[in-house]
Structure formats: C-alpha cells, structure tokens
Amino acid sequence: MPKPILISGIQPTGRLHLGNYLGALRNFVELQNSGKYQCLFFVADLHSLTAADFDAAKKQEEILGVARAYLAAGVDPKKSSVFVQSHIAESSELAWVFNTLAPVGELERMTQYKDKSAGRESVNVGLLTYPLLMAADILLYDAAVVPVGEDQLQHLELTRTLARKFNNRFGDTFVEPQPLMTKTPRVMSLTDPSKKMSKSLPEGCLFLDDSPADVKKKIMRAVTDSDSKVTFDPVQKAGVSNLLLIYEALSGKSVASLEKKYAGKGYGQFKADLADLAVVALAPFRELKPKTSNLKAALAAGDRKAKKLASAKMKDAKKKLGLL
Ligand code: AMP
Ligand code: TRP
Q1: Is 319 in the active site?
Q2: Catalytic: which of 199, 253, 261, 305?
Q3: Which residues contact 81 (CB under 8 A, 6 or more apart)?
Q4: Which pTM value belongs to this model?
Q5: pLDDT tens digit string along 48-82?
Q6: Strand, coil or helix: 176
Q7: Residue 138 CB less than 6 A away from ligand 1
C-alpha cells in the first residue's frame, strides 16, 4: 500500500512568524518524521500575487525564503518533496475548471475574503477565487490530509465540496482531503490578543528570524491584563492564555502544570522564561542558512515529482470533462 499523500503550502509574503511555525511548519516536520505520509510542501507564490501591492523585485527572494524556512524547520528533501506552486501549470489549469463549478455566493461567504475585502474600494478577482486555486493545489495530488492553521479550514471544506461535486457529475476523479490541525491552530497577536497573529499586523508578530533581543522585548511587552495571575481563561485573560498556549507548545508542558508552576509568581518570571524558550526554539531560523544551490536543487527535484503527479491527474480530469 502506498502511503497517503499529505500536502500543504505557505505563501511567500514576507517574514514568517510564530503563528506559521506553531500552526503549520512545526507540524509539517512532525508529520514528515512520523513516516506515515508521502509529504509534499510547496511555496504558494501564485496565491501571494493576490496581495495587490506586492513587490515583484523581491518575489524571488521571498520564494526562496519560504523554501529556506521549510528546511530550517526540519523538512528534509530526502523524505519530502518541496516545490514552487507556479512551476506546476496544472494548478492554474484545474483552478479554472473549479471557477466554472463554484457558485460566486459560496466564495463571497469565505471569512478570509470578507476580511480582506472589507472597506476596500477595489478588490482583485483573485482574492475571491483564491480558494479555488487552493482546491486545485490539493486535489491535483490526491492529498488525503492537509495540515493547516484554523484560518484555512473553511477553504478546505470548500475543497471537499468541489471534489464531491466534480466526482458526482463527471465520475470519480478526486480524493476528499481531511484537515489536520495542531494544538495551537490560532496563535494570537502579542499586541492585540483578540486578533490572530498575522503579517497584516506586524507589530503583534514574533518573526522567526527576529534577533534574541527582539524576541525578549516583544514577549516582555506582550499585552496581558492587570490582575497578574498566570491562569488560562481565553475570554477574560486572552493575552495570558495565548502566552500559556505558546509556552505549552514550545515546552511540551501542559497549561495546567504551567499554571501551577507560576502560581503566585506574577507575569515577569513567566514572560522571561517564555522568552528564553522562544529564543532557543527559533535559533534554527536565524542560524541555519541552507546554501542557495542546495535549495534550488531540492526545489528542482520537488518540481519534477509534483509535475509527474499533477500532469497525470490533470489528464484524467480533462478526459472526464470531455476535453481529451
Ligand atoms: P500563510 O502565511 O497565510 O500562507 O499561512 C501559512 C500557514 O500558517 C497556514 O497553514 C496558516 O493556517 C498558518 N497560520 C497563519 N497564521 C497563523 C496563526 N496566527 N496561528 C496559527 N496558524 C497560522
Ligand atoms: N492558502 C494557504 C494560506 O494562506 C496557502 C495554501 C495555498 C495552501 N494552497 C494550499 C495550504 C494548499 C494548504 C494546501 O495559508
């Protein structure tokens, strides 16, 4: 029995942050090392074009930056395939097919689309059809599982709906994928714990390549509350609860045991210890700099593997559609 296929992607839109790490990247590596899956990880460069103000002169470096982060986190090109989305033309081709199957209303209901288009006068169509390209990325490879953060669950549900719809109408072609989430699928902003940590709010991000001094400063200044008890209560104490979840994820110690450890101690020591943990956890991203030539060789091998799977699946889909 071949192992089930696992796929995920990250957009090259600037620096990666702790949310990307704890919600996605670290999980990718654990899943790879479990040996249970055939893993494919890609750089979602086409998705990143939907950020209307992107800088084309920086794009290549940003693409290599995500590939570098994969390797620094522990993705091993000998075990997993790492590739660039735009090198596989079949994603865009299949996304077009899904454009003809998905109702506009369903896309307009996507939370990410609503958030990104709210209050904007002009919104590019790509922002609306973004989940269709994502569906193509997944369904092209017969992926059984997709590790992502919570913000992508709705897109995954749409992917499943599209797979069913296509299969029902044109015959069995696509596998319905399952999402796989970490225990920290939604890391919150350090400066506003009511919002998720996101590149669009850079002041609340702990970036993976932040200097140790910046990591410490940001954690010591993270927004908490005035009662100084280290207890978990996501409603009344969103800031402290977010830090507790981060601490748990980085240390492997449960939230309950951390509450005990810091009972009666206030926030200072708790934050200082967490800062030390974060500096150690992020060290590989500052220190490991895989050579660009190695990176490019890994990407070329990943492209070949992805292309092989994608072209076979696209051919099948085209036959089912009567195009071949
Ligand atoms: P993106 O940078 O939007 O391409 O996201 C890459 C991955 O990181 C996706 O799986 C997201 O779900 C995940 N992610 C992004 N922000 C967060 C966050 N604040 N908490 C947890 N996961 C996140
Ligand atoms: N939309 C995802 C994000 O912003 C990135 C992505 C694109 C993706 N295609 C995908 C993730 C396919 C998983 C599977 O995080």
Answers
A1: no
A2: 199
A3: 39, 40, 41, 301, 302, 305, 306
A4: 0.94
A5: 999 988 999 999 999 999 999 999 999 999 999 99
A6: coil
A7: no
